[in-house]
Design a protein that fits this description.
Blueprint (H helix, E strand, L loop, with lengths): L4 H11 L1 H5 L1 H14 L7 E7 L2 E8 L2 E7 L14 H4 L9 E3 H6 L11 E4 L2 H18 L5 E2 L14 H12 L4 E3 L5 H10 L12 H7 L2 E5 L3 H4 L11 H13 L4 E5 L5 H6 L2 E3 L6 H14 L5 H7 E2 L1 H8 L11 H8 L3 H13 L2 E5 L10 H14 L8 E3 L43 E3 L3 H6 L4 E4 L2 E4 L5 E5 L3 H4 L3 H8 L4 E6 L4 H4 L3 E4 L8 E5 L6 E5 L12 H10 L4 H5 L4 H15 L9 H7 L1 E3 L10 H5 L13 E2 L3 H6 L28 E4 L15 H4 L9 E4 L1 H6 L7 E6 L2 E9 L7 E3 L44 E6 L14 E3 L1
Parallel strand pairs: 5-30, 6-17, 7-14, 8-9, 8-12, 9-10, 11-23, 12-13, 17-18, 18-19, 24-28, 25-27
Antiparallel strand pairs: 1-2, 2-3, 4-5, 4-19, 15-16, 20-21, 21-22, 24-29, 26-27, 26-29
Helix pairs in contact: 7-23, 8-18, 13-16, 13-17, 13-18, 16-17
The chain binds ligand MGD (2 copies) and molybdenum atom (MO).
Length: 825
């Protein structure tokens, strides 16, 4: 054992410096840092961009001294203040690292994976090991034994998009298994093509101006744009916030009636000061069925719309009135018991929906639950019965909280990216397509099942998937030990893996559970080009390298050039171009594509200026063309109509997703639902207000602005807290049969009794690698369930989760999440 106890403790102390030292000392550290940063006038300013928006950074003495939003961004997010901390923090991956036991024992030693004990190696040693492992797996097993398919929120930049670099290089070596769908909208994107003919979730939506001019009612259904529009998939412009400001005025003047259907008074509701309709968690479908029942019984629904534009209403009505399936009539009285909204209120709400122009705006959390397909399908049915699909300010949207959907598209070409795949006509070094009967593509959230139940056949979206028995995993640009559910189940699964390679700049829990960790640099340490405005296509952004790569980190491009050199493919990988040649060529292609439509300047002019603004786009109404002519502009559904009943889904013969939307009880539900006697609280793990998932959690000073005793906050209703003897600022142990964590109590009336929130992305900090060890920081996925939405989408069900809590007593363990590995150097 080469690690002494002293060193181990030393490691722990640095990992939790922020929480141990306390704010006083941090303050003086911050002051010292400011002095080292010089004043406003010193240094040079550079333009760059990020998920959090475009900015100017002042570089002084070779360091980023200051960051301020670009003038074009009229509604910058506070998270701009966390960016500096992504570059400079104790959790940076500094050197290539290899897990001690894996290296010493050469038997993969899965049982100690996660103990965070690493040794430093040279770049050559690390890349040789990586390459040898790829060789061994392709030779001894085959492509089915390598999983390199997980993706996620890689930092922005069209060229450096890191997962593409990894997949292209690894793909030049051999084939591997990959995934379909995503954690964001797994259930929604699978069900909606059957119902409305496209994923809807990733489609441009009706322009905000059309909504503001025409809607009388806006229903924010599980939808929190003020929180979630702070970040974008590409560099975010924050243009939507101007419309939210106008909406706030219209709400105040009584011109538009906004209702938030949500178990929580969320950030948007507090901002708009609009009506809040509290609903019991996970019960939206029961509520919607009762709304539909009211519209049907009171003859208020749009028969003409149903007749002209929809299919299968008559197959759905028997279920609604209690003549088929469960034989229960979906009356408001029936629903009230489940959803906690009174029968009178349900009737009143139903009448309101049809009285005037009503826009339904759904968020995504409501489909990130068991049977998550149903609320979206039922939402479409409700919209069809209201009959306003395709009208300005009417109908249904599933994306207005995301990446500025609803800001009109300019329609100009955007720069492309680095190719994810091997070039056409090229074969991988190991040209082997034999997956031994295993599926080559697996539903994204089922990758842990593969390890625990290899060879199992599952049903998925009309087909069968045989879970591959993979042995090796390569991770880049995503953080599985944040994004997946049920940490203790993951621990068991990871013991079975032979080799895990992670390419990262932050020492996340995924690094802790890896064997080889390669230090990438951040986006702030490389040059790139980005789309400015993911859906609006507002323009182009130059991402100037701010500082040189820190420590021994390299760009992903360099890392994979060096990997592919090991099997003689580096020239094909790079196409003989370096970083700036790639950036220039992506710009040149984009410039060509826009010729005659928009004259883009020479590259150097653009690069110097930092931003190219295409201006605004034209307002637009989703599904207006379909409404105008449903024959010519048919939807992409099998029939071309809105499918209230889907013959295709019906024929799949699934239990948990049948021919029309239905109410299904959940495996866990609070407020009297299953499991609530033992674990009475519903844990929602919403997207963080001050992070992008796990990104920026490492930003120490910024994290200190929201942590409680150095831990992630848990938001609790004051009455619930009082009943448990918990006060604001207390440490709380949150637990269920799957796991336990420590979090810091924040009492708030915005949370209803029985509802608690811990935001996703909190860095997992297990006390040790053992199954069941307490999480010292507060990652909600320590507690969530790893079950599929249904046989249709096989999507994550993170929001189907009950927990209990108590005031923590006993010795307080230090936070182990931050500060990197424990190592001998
Ligand atoms: N309980 C619960 N779990 C959830 C959710 C939930 O609502 N509740 N939401 C789910 C959703 S919708 C999503 S999208 C996922 C998000 O899951 P992920 O996309 O996995 O989350 P991120 O934290 O963004 O992880 C990105 C990682 O890539 C690294 N990275 C970024 N840029 C680069 C780069 O250029 N090079 C390299 N090498 N690495 C880079 C970052 O440091 C970070 O660790 O989480 C899912 N998990
Ligand atoms: N600041 C910030 N913004 C982000 C992200 C981030 O990490 N940080 N991530 C981005 C990504 S990848 C995604 S996928 C989107 C996620 O977008 P969403 O999934 O829509 O966001 P959430 O914040 O999880 O939840 C939105 C609302 O749903 C409510 N809700 C949850 N369960 C239920 C329910 O059963 N019924 C009802 N009626 N309401 C419910 C919550 O209380 C919350 O107010 O956000 C994007 N935007
Ligand atoms: Mo997402």
């Amino acid at each position: 054992m080469s690690l002494s106890r002293r060193k181990f403790l030393k490691g722990l102390a640095t990992t939790s410096a922020a929480s141990v030292i306390g704010p006083g000392l941090l303050m003086s550290a911050a002051k010292a840092a400011t002095e080292a940063a010089g004043d406003q006038a010193s240094g040079i300013w550079k333009v760059s961009g990020s998920h959090w928006g475009a900015f100017r950074a002042r570089i002084y003495n070779g360091k980023v001294a200051e960051i301020k939003p670009l003038e074009l961004d009229k509604h910058p997010t506070e998270m701009i203040n966390g960016i500096k901390g992504i570059i400079y923090n104790p959790s940076r991956v500094r050197y290539p690292m290899v897990r001690l036991d894996w290296l010493k024992k050469h038997k993969y030693s899965g049982e100690t994976r996660g103990n965070n004990r690493f040794v430093r190696v040279t770049w050559d040693e690390a890349l040789d090991l990586f390459y040898q492992e790829l060789e061994r797996v392709q030779k001894d097993y085959g492509p089915w034994a390598l999983h390199a398919g997980q993706t996620g929120w890689r930092q922005t930049g069209q060229f450096h998009s890191c997962t593409s670099h990894m997949q292209r290089a690894v793909g030049m070596h051999g084939n591997y298994i990959t995934k379909v769908g995503d954690y964001s909208t797994g259930a929604g994107q699978t069900i909606l093509p059957y119902v409305l003919g496209s994923t809807e979730v990733y489609a441009q939506g009706t322009s905000w101006s059309e909504i503001l001019d025409n809607s009388k009612n806006i229903i924010l259904w599980a939808c929190d744009p003020n929180k979630n529009l702070q970040v974008g998939w590409n560099c975010e412009t924050h243009e939507s916030f101007a419309y939210l400001e106008l909406l706030k005025e219209k709400v105040a003047e009584g011109i538009i009636n906004v209702v938030s259907v949500d178990p929580v008074k969320n950030k948007t509701q507090r901002y708009l000061a609009n009506e809040h309709l509290y609903i019991n968690p996970q019960t939206d479908v029961a509520f919607m069925l009762a709304l539909a029942h009211t519209l049907y019984k009171e003859d208020l629904y749009d028969k003409n719309f149903i007749k002209t534009y929809c299919l299968g209403f008559e197959d759905f009505v028997p279920y609604l009135v209690g003549e088929s399936k469960d034989k229960i009539e979906k009356t408001p009285e029936w629903a009230a018991e489940i959803c906690g909204i009174s029968a009178d209120k349900i009737r009143e709400f139903a009448r309101m929906l049809v009285a005037e122009r009503t826009q339904l705006l759904f968020g995504w959390a409501v489909q990130r639950q068991q049977h998550g397909e149903q609320p979206y399908w039922m939402g479409a049915v409700l919209a069809a019965m209201i009959g306003q699909i395709g009208l300005p300010g009417g109908g249904v949207s599933y994306g207005h909280h995301y990446s500025s959907i609803g800001v009109p598209s300019t329609g100009f070409a955007a720069p492309g990216g680095f190719p994810r795949n091997v070039d056409q006509g090229q074969k991988p070094k190991w040209d082997n397509d034999d997956f031994k009967g295993y599926s080559r593509t697996i539903p994204v959230a089922r990758w842990v099942d593969c390890l625990l139940e290899p060879g199992k056949e599952i049903r998925y979206n009309g087909s069968k998937v045989k879970l591959p028995d993979y042995k090796m995993m390569v991770v880049s640009g995503n953080n599985p030990w944040h994004h997946h559910q049920d940490r203790n189940r993951m621990k068991k699964a990871f013991q079975k893996l032979q080799t895990v390679v992670t390419i990262e700049f932050a020492w996340t829990a995924t690094c802790r559970f890896s064997d080889i960790v390669l230090p990438a640099c951040t986006q702030f340490e490389r040059n790139d080009i980005d789309v400015y405005g993911s859906y609006s296509g507002r323009g182009l952004l130059a991402m100037h390298k701010l500082v040189d790569p820190l420590f021994q980190s390299k760009t992903d491009f360099e890392i994979f050039t060096e990997l592919s050199r090991r099997f003689g493919r580096h020239k094909e990988y790079t196409r003989g171009m370096d970083e700036m040649e790639w950036v220039r060529s992506l710009y040149a292609d984009c410039r060509n594509a826009n010729k005659g439509k928009f004259e883009m300047p020479e590259f150097d002019v653009f690069w110097e200026k930092g931003v190219l603004d295409f201006g605004g786009g034209k307002p637009w109404v989703r599904h207006a063309d379909f409404r105008e002519d449903p024959e010519i502009n048919a939807l992409g559904t099998p029939s071309g109509f809105v499918e209230i009943f889907s013959r295709k889904i019906d024929r799949f013969g699934y239990e948990q997703c049948q021919g029309h939307p239905m109410w299904f009880e959940k495996s866990e539900r609070s407020h009297g639902g299953p499991g609530s006697d033992k674990h009475p609280f519903w844990l929602q793990s919403c997207h963080p207000d001050k992070r992008l998932h796990s990104q920026m959690c490492e930003s120490d000073e910024f994290r200190e602005t929201y942590t409680v005793q150095g831990r992630e906050p848990i938001y609790i209703n004051p009455a619930d807290a009082a009943a448990k003897g918990i006060k604001n600022g207390d440490l709380v142990r949150v637990f269920n049969d799957r796991g336990q964590l420590l979090a810091g109590a924040v009492l708030s009336d915005s949370y209803a009794p029985g509802v608690v929130r811990i935001e996703e992305g909190a860095w997992y900090g297990p006390l040790n690698e053992k199954v069941g060890a307490i999480d010292t920081y507060g990652d909600p996925n320590t507690l969530t369930q790893d079950i599929a939405s249904s046989e249709l989408a096989q999507a994550t069900s993170a929001n189907t989760c009950n927990v209990d809590l108590e005031k923590f007593s006993g010795d307080v363990p230090p936070v182990t999440s931050f500060g990197g590995p424990l190592y001998d150097s």
